[in-house]
Amino acid sequence: QLGFIYYNQINYIPEGWEFPPEIHGAERSTERFNLPEDYAVVTPYATHANRRMTAAAVNELTSYLKQKNLTPVFLGRTLDADGDITGASPGIRRDGILDLSENTDLVEAAVILAHAKVVIGIDNGLLHLAMCSKVPVVFALTTVRPELRIPKRQLGAKTVTITPPKELTCRFCT
To answer: How far apart are CA 144 and CA 11, in angstroms?
Structure first.
């Protein structure tokens, strides 16, 4: 229900639904993925071109994470329900990346997100799922204002939002 409320940008949130349910990371084992102890999840896929990270941005981000001794982990769906490519920018380097795209179910993805050191991406479902845990989330938005899209989090959960520069003529346009 809470997802429906946020999706439809309804300002009235029923009592008791102020926060998304919390994912602790013990909901399912993820041993089969052989995750490193220190990793960061990056979500490079998008269903819309205006929510896609450029290859240069992804490559710079993953290089930075590796310099900080964090293994970048890619999560997401590379295909939509019709089998069409959802879109990662061409040219993304995969060296040193643990690419779990298309290899997890939703609960496994939630557990992987909850155990990450940080989750980074542009407005997508996995970021919303990460918001159900205490993991820090870097949540970039392109078409929707943060106050309309970012769910409240439990105390102590850090969220950093990135938005388009104010001088853009089409800020938060679709």
So the answer is: 14
Residue 119: closest CA among 145, 89, 148, 157: 157
**Alpha-helical runs (H) found in 68-131:** 106-115, 125-130
Distance CA 170, CA 142 (A): 10
The predicted model scores a pTM of: 0.81
| CA 13 vs CA 5, 80, 151, 161: distances in Å | 7, 30, 11, 21
Separation between Cα atoms, residue 125 and residue 168, nearest integer Å: 26
Encode pLDDT of 83-133 as tens digits: 555 566 778 898 999 999 989 998 999 999 999 999 999 888 898 889 889
